[in-house]
Amino acid sequence: MKLTVLGNTGPYPGPGGASSGYLFAAADARIALDFGSGVLANLQKSLDFTDLDMIICSHLHSDHIADLFVLRYALQEQGRQLPLYVPFAPSLDLASLYYKEVFQIKKITEKLELTRGNLQLTFKRLKHPFPDFGTKITDGATTFLYTGDTCYTPALDEFATGVDVLLCDAAFLEDNASDKHLCVKEACEIANKAGVKTLILTHLSPAEDPKKYLEKGKRHFKGNLLVTEIGKTYDIKALADL
Ligand SMILES: [Zn+2]
Ligand SMILES: [Zn+2]
């Protein structure tokens, strides 16, 4: 199981950067987690977009879905369709995602369970102004969780328990209990409580130096700490065995 960072900032990309997007790859699966601005270009450095099996969007804020609106042209040109899992948000018109029916749009709920090869995927509603779902992926031996965007919620404590590698919203560098995002300290506390082996901080501010996230996180997290870097590929199994 490998995770490649395609975009890691929010709510917009910095110079040459990209907002949220990750490629989760295993023997039988090529799954994009979120698809923000700049993600399609970065994806194609390691994978032909027609080789994707599915896209899962944590929620429908633009910094997590922007490149779907150009990927739809690319898919149409190739005559391809792609499953797209999204939580529905009552306030957002999804009509433009139905363009030429290139996306097979399916709704994420807590009841949804997906199987792909030897992977199982489950979902949990977290807490954010738009409905956001965390995605948990396991092969039975190693478990990975991506939060999408969330502030603190006991649902995340519960969902993160038993997770080996946690890719977590840590939008705020300074301590800040907000109703939108986690701060670095909160992300670390959740990971400590859940017994996570490796915590990867993401949804970084394009205005901040990523090193500051690492410095801050190291003061609070007891395990192995990483900060996302675009283009980096992580071996999830290796990070779970530390
Ligand atoms: Zn975001
Ligand atoms: Zn958001």
From TrEMBL:
SUPFAM superfamilies: Metallo-hydrolase/oxidoreductase. Residues 18-203 form the Metallo-beta-lactamase domain. It comes from the Bacteria. Transmembrane segments: none annotated. It holds the Pfam family Lactamase_B_2. This is MBL fold metallo-hydrolase.
